[in-house]
TrEMBL record:
UniProt-recorded name of the protein: SET domain-containing protein
Pfam family, one: SET
InterPro entries: SET_dom, SET_dom_sf, SET_domain_protein
Region of interest (Disordered), residue spans: 313-349
Composition bias, Basic and acidic residues: 338-349
All residue ranges annotated as the SET domain in the record: 6-138
Species for this entry: Rhodocollybia butyracea
């Protein structure tokens, strides 16, 4: 099928119906598709017009589902804030799913760009010509990520056969435990930081441990959230150099996922350049200024891997990108992260 996005085509993918394939090497960080809504479906179902329903019915449906609801589950990313509804996109809605896992993971991510009113699809890894382009349907949702097979069966009506889901049950359960722990940590970390009860270095150590697990488990979409927490911590204690390093990571990972123009990335540019412009700046310096530190080298290596594309002329990737850890780095990261398996253990001041 001829598309208006020259880097990709829609093809049949065995076992998945149709899908999207790369027509050329696509370096990480590239904007692959910026697509206008075909139809918007408001959350209030009674506002959906008969024409919109007709358009929806022209798309295939998960076999077990209600003809309308099934198609919602099947195709429609949220657009705008969660109460604004879903969007139907002719091409982006053809992108299949891969679960984040230590073995595999999606190579692209989509995000809604409010100013242009378009859904953007960015390459989050280098994508090789002919490779299938996939996104994760489940990130940022702890319940789903702890048991992706059940979630996808229930909500999307398919049995996922990505490499992560084909692992033995014990390995999947091990991942589920670690994922649960990092979501619990994510829920608590701001509270812990703001409680002022814990030594900032100890909190930073725990953020790093969780980040290493996030990297190992392939949950790269969470990196910028964790690194922004680390930034805030450093900013609260007035450590500008460390705060800048953490926020540069937030910015660069945000750029990979949402592009340079996204509002969050633009804010990150400012805060990385001058942490004192952030509202948290110096908030806890009455407790004494603290010298903290930026991200450890394993995290940096993960977030800024060299390009894997032979066709990339520049030795530098288009934007710094996440990649898999080497064997040696993984071993070190595992050793560092081991303690966190139980629960983040914060030392009190
Ligand atoms: C957003 S649509 C993707 C396009 C769809 N494959 C098509 O032919 O139109 C989502 C549907 O694609 C199929 N799908 C996506 N990822 C899959 C995967 N990893 N394994 C099997 N089926 C998948 C499922 O039927 C799912 O409900």
């Amino acid at each position: 099928m001829t598309l208006s996005f020259p880097k990709v085509c829609i093809v049949d993918i065995p076992g998945k119906g149709q899908g999207v394939r790369a027509l050329e090497d696509i370096p990480r960080g590239t904007l692959i598709i910026a697509e206008t809504l075909k139809v918007r479906y408001p959350m209030k179902r009674d506002l959906i017009t008969p024409e919109a329903i007709e358009c929806l019915l022209s798309f295939p449906c998960a076999p077990t589902d209600h003809p309308i609801i099934g198609r919602f589950k099947h195709f429609l990313p949220l657009v705008g804030s969660s109460d604004e509804g879903h969007g139907l996109f002719a091409t982006i809605c053809k992108v299949n799913h891969t679960c984040p896992s230590p073995l595999d993971g999606p190579n692209a991510a989509y995000c809604w760009d409010e100013p242009s009113g378009k859904e953007l699809l960015h390459a989050i890894h280098d994508i090789h010509r002919n490779e299938e382009i996939t996104v994760s349907y489940i990130h940022e949702n702890s319940e789903a990520s702890q048991d992706p097979l059940t979630f996808l069966r229930k909500h999307f009506g398919f049995d996922c056969s990505c490499r992560g889901c084909l692992r033995p049950a014990a390995e999947r359960q091990h991942s589920a435990k670690r994922i649960k722990a990092f979501y619990q940590f994510d829920d608590l970390v701001l509270e812990v930081i703001n409680s002022k009860q814990y030594a900032p270095l100890s909190i930073l150590k725990d953020i790093e441990k969780q980040l290493l697990i996030v990297c190992e488990e392939g949950y790269e979409s969470l990196i910028s959230r964790f690194s922004h927490n680390a930034f805030q911590l450093c900013a609260l204690y007035g450590d500008a150099a460390s705060a800048s390093e953490w926020e540069a990571l937030t910015r660069d990972m945000g750029m990979v996922y949402c592009g340079e123009k996204s509002k969050d990335v633009q804010e990150s540019f400012g805060h990385a350049k001058d942490p004192s412009t952030h509202p948290a700046w110096g908030g806890f310096t009455f407790l004494g200024k603290r010298k903290l530190h930026g991200p450890c080298k394993e995290i940096v290596a993960y977030c800024y891997p060299p390009s894997t594309l032979a066709s990339t002329l520049s030795p530098e990737p288009l934007v710094p990108a996440p990649g898999k850890l080497s064997k040696g780095q993984k071993k070190k990261a595992r050793a560092k992260a081991k303690k966190t398996e139980k629960q983040p253990g914060l030392e009190k001041d």
